[in-house]
Structures are given as structure tokens and as C-alpha cells.
Specification:
Elements lengths: L1 E5 L10 H14 L6 E7 L5 H6 L5 E6 L3 H11 L5 H4 L5 E4 L13 E6 L3 H4 L6 H10 L1 H5 L4 E4 L2 H11 L6 E3 L22 E5 L8 H13 L8 E5 L7 H9 L6 E5 L3 H10 L2 E4 L8 H8 L4 E4 L4 H5 L4 E3 L4 H13 L1 H15 L4 H15 L1
Parallel strand pairs: 1-2, 1-4, 2-3, 4-5, 5-6, 6-7, 8-9, 8-11, 9-10, 11-12, 12-13
């Protein structure tokens, strides 16, 4: 089987979210000696040498177009529907898009498959800035998805959203859960936290993740003068959008000196944070899947997350779930976890067991089975 993959999502050197998902899944697919061949398509003015060096595999052929992204997306793909991506790759059996992007196709015999991670931009457009909302509107997601023979949803929640918000027939959607990253590394620059008990959040700093609500909960927790005053709040992750109010909330906190924004952290640093934190808290309003809670659970870290969207589906009863719209409920959950060693230990054990269900091997196998069914 010959499989083309749109790897435009991998153009940045630092991966998170969907780029990381794509990276890990491709690694697993290429680790198999199954005779499959791959064509990786990308658009970039510069040669992304980090990609070319990542996959020096004889089964992988790279195909490149070299246009400025705005011209390529808005003019060539959206307005002129050129170039046809599946014609650029040459004859293939499957063209897989791991993320929504401006795309046009011209080979009817090639089966097109796309992975949808979430529809947060339709559920909660208020969480995005105007530029991002304009980009999503320009995509015309409903029309875009009509080009694909099959849609992969990474959770039942995303499948439900596809059916409800875009009226996609259920028979066009296959749910394939994500795998779980397994890496144990030493950090390079955050060892100063080694002797400090801390509560950890890891994710993009943006309104949808409810970071502001977490800061409010931390304030409430500290206001109670419990024997938790030594616990810092560590917020790790790159900047998203509309986050000025989040930084202001931290700045205005009476405990601002104990709130740490680490910015983007490497995989090595992230793994270390999971291992050293006392508790992981991820009170997001909406997720298509929810990698960080699952990753934290896999490290034996007791976890609190939201009781909405896909999060209960992923964590099941192995994490403590709360209403993300109540900072008081969140503060009480954090308090109970930190003050009760047995409760925290119980959730840590259940989390570890739950995380074993999710493997990239299983994800890759499900993808290959679907690809084979479609050709």
C-alpha cells in the first residue's frame, strides 16, 4: 500500500498538540516492516532539514511545493484549487490529512482520509482571536470535509460534534483513540523546582484551557491558610491567544510570587515536570481528546480534570473530574487531593492502569486497518 501524508502540520521545530500526535503516529507506522510506502507532502519556502533528517527511510519520499503559506492557502488552494495535492504526490492508494488545512484534490481513485481532533472553533469561537476565527471561517470546514471518503475522530465526543455541528453521517466517521507518549528524560533548565512542591498545569495558555479559573482556584486555596502554603502553581506551555487577562490575573494575585509561567517546555522538561509534581490539574472547558491528563496519569501523577467534552471519556474514573465553571469546586478538589495522601495515591494507581489502554501501536494498527478497508 502506498500512503501519502500531508505533513504541513510538522513544519515547526517544536511540536505540541496535533503536530506531536502526527509525529508519534508516523514514527509508529514507519517502525513496522509491512511493505507500505509513504509520500510526505509539505509546502515550505525553506527546506525543513529537521524533517528530512528525522526520516532517512528508503520507504519515505518527500514532495515539496515552495510557496509563501498565505499565497498557497488563500489563493492557490482556496480560490484556484491548485495544485491538486494528490496529483503532486503521484499515484497513491491513500491520501491522509492528519489535520484540517486548505486542500484541493484531483484524483478520484485515491481515497482521502482526514483526522479531526476537535471542533472547538465551532463550539466556542469566543475563545479564539479574530484572526484565528477568520482562518477557520475561510476553511469552510463543512465543504472541505466533503472531499474526504472517511473521517477519523479521535474520540466519541469529537464524533458527536461532527454529527451535530456539521451533519456528517455517522457511517462516514471512525473513532480511533490516540496513543500515549512514553519517554523518560532529564530536564535541562528547570531543576530549581526539584525541591519545591508544586501543582502542575501543562497546556497552551489560552481561555479555552481555563487557566484563569485555575489561578482563581489557587487563590481560594491559599486564602484558606491551610498547610499548603508551600505549594507553588506551575503553568507550563506556549502562548495561545486572548491570554492577556490570564497573565493579569496572575499578576494581581496576592500569591503572584508563587505562580510560575514556564512558557514552552521541551519533551524532556515536560516528562520531568510530570514526575516531580505533587498534583496535575487540567480544568479545560473543551477538548477533542486531552493528552496532558493522560500523560500525567501514565507517570503515576494524581490528576484533576474537567467533567465536560471528551475528558471523562478519556480518563474514566481514574481522575477526579470537576465542573470547570466553578473555581470553588476546583479549589475544593485540589484541597482534598493535597491533604489526603490515600486519595491521591488511589488516583495515581488508577491513572497508571488507565493509561496502559492507550498505545501508539494500537492507534497505528487501527489506522492501517482502515486504510486497507478503503483501497
Amino acid at each position: 500500500m502506498k500512503i501519502a501524508v500531508d505533513i504541513r502540520v510538522l513544519m515547526d521545530k517544536h511540536y505540541s498538540g496535533i503536530a506531536e500526535y502526527t509525529d508519534y503516529l508516523l514514527r509508529e507506522l514507519l517502525s513496522r516492516n509491512d511493505g507500505n510506502e509513504y509520500v510526505f507532502y509539505y509546502n515550505s519556502l525553506k527546506l525543513p532539514r529537521h524533517l528530512l533528517q528525522k526520516w532517512p527511510d528508503k520507504r519515505v519520499v518527500f514532495v515539496r511545493s515552495a510557496w509563501p503559506n498565505k499565497i498557497f492557502n488563500y489563493f492557490l488552494q482556496k480560490i484556484w484549487s491548485w495544485p491538486k495535492l494528490d496529483l503532486m504526490t503521484g499515484p497513491v492508494d491513500i491520501f491522509w490529512s492528519p489535520h484540517i488545512n486548505f486542500s484541493s484534490f484531483g484524483a478520484p481513485a485515491t481515497k482521502k482520509i482526514i483526522t479531526i481532533h476537535d471542533l472547538s472553533f465551532l463550539r466556542y469561537p469566543e475563545f479564539f482571536n479574530w484572526r484565528k476565527n477568520l482562518w477557520h471561517k475561510s476553511l469552510n470546514i463543512k465543504k472541505l470535509l466533503k472531499q474526504y471518503d472517511e473521517i477519523i475522530a479521535i474520540s466519541e465526543n469529537t464524533k458527536h460534534d461532527l454529527m451535530e455541528l456539521l451533519q456528517i453521517p455517522e457511517e462516514r466517521i471512525t473513532v480511533i483513540y490516540s496513543g500515549l507518549n512514553k519517554e523518560d528524560c532529564e530536564p535541562q533548565k528547570i531543576k530549581k523546582l526539584a525541591s519545591t512542591p508544586f501543582i502542575l498545569y501543562l497546556g497552551t495558555i489560552e481561555p479555552r484551557k481555563n487557566v484563569g479559573g485555575l489561578i482563581e482556584a489557587y487563590n481560594l486555596l491559599r486564602d484558606r491558610h491551610l498547610p499548603l502554603t508551600s505549594h507553588k502553581l506551575v503553568l507550563a506551555g506556549g502562548n495561545g491567544w486572548k491570554n492577556k487577562s490570564i497573565y493579569n490575573k496572575a499578576k494581581d494575585s496576592l500569591y503572584c510570587d508563587d505562580i510560575y509561567f514556564l512558557g514552552y517546555v521541551s519533551r524532556e522538561e515536560r516528562e520531568w515536570l510530570y514526575q516531580k509534581a505533587k498534583l496535575f490539574v487540567y480544568p479545560s472547558y473543551y477538548e477533542g481528546f486531552g493528552f496532558p491528563p493522560l500523560e500525567a496519569m501514565s507517570k503515576g501523577l494524581a490528576t484533576i480534570t474537567s467533567d465536560v467534552s471528551s475528558l471523562p471519556e478519556v480518563v474514566s474514573d481514574a481522575a477526579l473530574t470537576v465542573n470547570p465553571y466553578s473555581s470553588l469546586d476546583l479549589a475544593r478538589a485540589i484541597e482534598s487531593m493535597l491533604l489526603d495522601d490515600d486519595l491521591r495515591s488511589n488516583y495515581a494507581k488508577k491513572g497508571t492502569a488507565r493509561s496502559l489502554i492507550f498505545t501508539w501501536s494500537k492507534t497505528a494498527q487501527n489506522y492501517l486497518e482502515l486504510f486497507n478497508k478503503k483501497i
